[in-house]
Amino acid sequence: MKLHIATRPDEIDGGFVAECPEIPGCLSEGATEEEAIANIREAMLLCLEVRREQGLPLTVPLHEVEVPVP
Question: Whole-angstrom Cα distance, residue 70 to residue 15?
Answer without folding.
Answer: 30
